[in-house]
Design a protein that fits this description.
Two copies of one chain form a homodimer.
Chain A lengths: L4 E3 L3 E7 L2 E8 L1 H9 L6 E6 L5 H9 L7 E3 L4 E7 L6 E7 L19 E4 L4 H10 L5 E4 L3 H6 L1 H10 L2 E5 H8 L4 H9 L5 E5 L5 E5 L2 E5 L13 H16 L4 H18 L6 H4 L3 H13 L4
Parallel strand pairs in A: 1-4, 1-8, 2-6, 4-5, 8-9, 9-10, 10-11
Antiparallel strand pairs in A: 2-3, 6-7, 11-12, 12-13
Chain lengths: ~300, ~300
């Protein structure tokens, strides 16, 4: 059973941080999210790659139990080039080549349509809407986005937001969408829509989960060695959705746990370039950090 | 018994936030800190005011059990004028009039010298050093500062830091003093000095407590109505020190509680201009918010 279905980008990234640089490495929101989800469940990806995409990456994803039959083949893979300065909270883009993504229409394989959990990772909201329409009886639709879509496709974005159950945004995106500097007010506005939960990712400062009349504040993990924050937000959303797909429990208490597992995978991801650190993470590593997350919060 | 002794500024502030403006209101690091400490213990202030300082403020402080015999009298009170934009994490200064502060030499009353707890609120590090020297047998010296002293009096500042037990800094100050963007590395550097604990105040993102091999992450309280963040950091340090002076317990577990009480008083302080919100706070309000702080971090 494919769960969750994840739509997003598959990319070849070139980037520089104060701690090194890499060229044409595996990236993209669907990659990060599906690798994160694969710690808990069997995700399937909807995306597009080009003929230049190394086959070893597909083999790696499949080996992790990630279904890739929803990945279409175009001419050239989406590429992103960027860098981070000392404040690694913000990625600076040098160049984006949409390539095959430009004309991508998501075709949803038959067995994907039966999925109960959906993660709409960061991609054009029209594609997110197409996936929402294709999944027959979703139990939970989790959705991410980015400032580009807020600025350029707000109408379609709001349509998608109105059909999603959980929004996963960073603080700047939440402020921008709901037009207020105050995150508590942004949450009230979100919860007046169809949204059942708003999650605000704050990078090193942790994450907030707002539900009807509850508020959860997940700590940021204190990282001594951050190498590359690319994909941390995607990892968060993928792990969050994957954990819920595994546990099939949508109580507020379990959403809190899912937020913590999302934070854990994201914290490991930042310790290496591209998806490198996640390759070596085992289940006992997750449980070790889960215990640490509890410990740093105890009073 | 006077405890803690607090050195810092007493000011008349004029400021504007997106939610209103006030003129010549009570402010200054020693005022905020001592009011915060007075929820737990009987602090005494070392500072200077001018002949223009309204007597009602002194009466108010005394009524809260704050000893003001360490407050010297000069010509004109220190004045600060500033504003906040929508991102209320950063105060912008329009004008600073040092006035009487310029030639202030701290004279420490006899009964202050017997204090066990000391809070060196933000002020010239030479004055902080003078107080350290005057207190006979301090059990705990807690110290705050600001970017101005890091830039202009680094030598004296480092001398004071080397004599303090607990540093209370905001994230930018910690990065600046220890010359690293990484807060975990800043903490390691601080703990290699005489410092027993480094606390990093992160405003709406909460606070971090680093001790020898422990790390505590206190959540930020989700405020729907922030009116004026002036003095929140001073409140934090004052409440932290006051709580420890009351409980006389320097275990790591109790330092965590002191951090939470510091966060609670700071969160209330932001709900009003100047010290207005703190006037009406009762002990049951502290306990109510303490319970909320527990609840929002439970998983």
């Amino acid at each position: 059973m494919i769960d969750p279905v994840i739509i997003g980008t598959v990319a070849l990234d070139s980037l520089e941080t104060p701690f090194g640089s890499v060229k044409n490495v595996l990236g993209g929101s669907a990659c990060y999210a599906s690798i994160a989800a694969s710690f808990f469940s069997k995700p399937g990806i909807l995306s597009i790659i080009g003929k230049d995409f190394p086959d070893k990456h597909i083999k790696f994803l499949n080996k992790r139990g990630i279904d890739t039959k929803g990945v279409a083949l175009g001419e050239k893979t989406f590429r992103w080039q960027g860098f981070y300065e000392f404040d690694m909270n913000e990625a600076k883009t040098l160049r984006t080549e949409l390539n095959a993504l430009e004309s991508y229409k998501a075709e949803v394989p038959k067995d994907y349509k039966k999925a109960k959990y959906v993660f709409l990772a960061n991609i054009d909201p029209e594609l997110q809407l197409a996936v929402i329409d294709a999944i027959k009886k979703p139990e939970l639709i989790v959705m991410d986005t980015m400032n580009f879509w807020i600025e350029h496709k707000k109408v379609q974005l709001m349509k998608a937001i109105n059909k999603a159950d959980v929004l996963v945004l960073n603080d700047a995106e939440a402020r921008q969408i709901f037009n207020t500097p105050n995150l508590v007010k942004a949450a009230s506005a979100a919860l007046k829509l169809n949204t059942k939960a708003l999650i605000i990712k704050k990078g090193e400062h942790g994450a907030l989960l707002f539900t009807d009349n509850k508020h959860f504040n997940a700590p940021g993990y204190p990282l001594e060695n951050i190498k590359d924050p690319t994909g941390c937000g995607d990892c968060f959303g993928g792990a969050f959705t994957g954990y819920l797909a595994k546990t099939q429990d949508l109580s507020e208490a379990n959403l809190r746990k899912a937020v913590v597992y999302g934070s854990i995978i994201a914290s490991y991801n930042a310790e290496g370039f591209s998806i490198e650190r996640l390759r070596s993470i085992k289940h006992e590593d997750l449980e070790k950090r889960y215990k640490e997350f509890k410990d740093i919060r105890e009073f």
